[in-house]
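Help wanted!
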Amino acid sequence: MNAFDYRAPRALDEALAIFQEYGDDARVIAGGTALVTMMRQRLVQPRCVVSLRDVEGLGRIEATNGAIRIGALVTHREAETSPLLQERLPVLAETFRRVGTIRIRHMATVGGALAHADPNQDPPVTLIALGARVEIRSADGRREVPIEEFFRDYYEPALEPVELVTAVTVPLLPPASGASFVKFLPRTADDYATVAVAVSVTLEAEGERCREARVALGSVATTPLRGRAAEALLSGARLDEDVAKAVGDAARRVTDPLDDHRGSAAYKREMTAVMVGRALTQAWVAARASARGAR
Amino acid sequence: MIRIRLAVNGQPHDVEVPTYRTLLDCLRYDLGLTGSKEGCGVGVCGACTVLLDGKMISSCIALAVFADGREVTTVESLADDERLHPVQQAFMDAGGFQCGICTPGQVVAAKALLDAIPNPSDTEIREWMLGNLCRCTGYYKIVESIRAAAQQSRA
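Answered by r_m:
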């Protein structure tokens, strides 16, 4: 690793001022699992590393106004084991549980993973299906972006050098809704997905027709994707085999995967269609149960 | 260089390290605690497993400054003089100790497991130990050792 200045500000404003000072030459460190690995491989050689660990107020998971707000410094393990998340958004707690190993989940943070913008990560997929928003701060103020607009390219978040991810806000599912996360990984359980899919479905109150759905895909392009064409097919539809197949095909068409040791591009495209079908069925079953429970 | 104060296995230390020093290198080269090993160097294999404030982490991708003001537990703390920790004894008795290179990480992870879940199921053992690789591939014996250690601790 290269030598660097290390700063550990105690307040967010202080951290944001350091970014103004160093610009592109400063890198934020939270859990460090991504940054230290990249620094050890000399892929990144920052002049200054700014640790957020002493900044107050970034490590909370809280219920706010029909949503759950997860602070940027919450670790994957804290998210996975949070009683609030397990009760209100079990699909998201389960998604965090599927990341890497417990050791890595003790270190890696929710905000750090988003800012890393690795398209093979699991949480962004479920967060897109749930309609989450990323909260971003700079010395000039605060903004929020829908999470599917946050990923620009391979390892490239929609984040200026002077900006910082401070939280992600995830709306609770409305009544008559269900959500699922399917991670297809033929190698070891701690690996990145070959294909990951998350689906959320909200049914009409009668519990048969789809009012709204979201389909999200991971590991099949340079960013996680939202399958809008697939979603459009679901609007007003009842679920049967033909619909599930059409939705899977529509999702497959937006993918642009790489050939790698987790599968060929052609294989990943085919598996996208299959996994979307499975995720859709799971989400639908959950939505129906939720609709029945509400009546 | 940066000055950090940390407690390792209950002993306070005050050391000056380069900012880029990993916690693993700090333990091994600054403090002489060579029980924790570097295997993959990218947080995958588990040979460098230590506990930071009781939570197991990969010390090869943790900066030493992260341990400033905190408590680190390494494999050196497990045995009490000549008396092995139940996890270490079980690894000896049930054959979990094989070529030895992954063993320090395995026993630290297993201790952390039994601290969190004193009576784990086989599924819980496998899920917890997922990130500790054994190139001898002797995973059955490792699971058996942990099961035995859990029984021993209950007795």
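OP: Thanks! One thing I noticed: Chain A touches chain B through 29 residues (CB under 8 Å).
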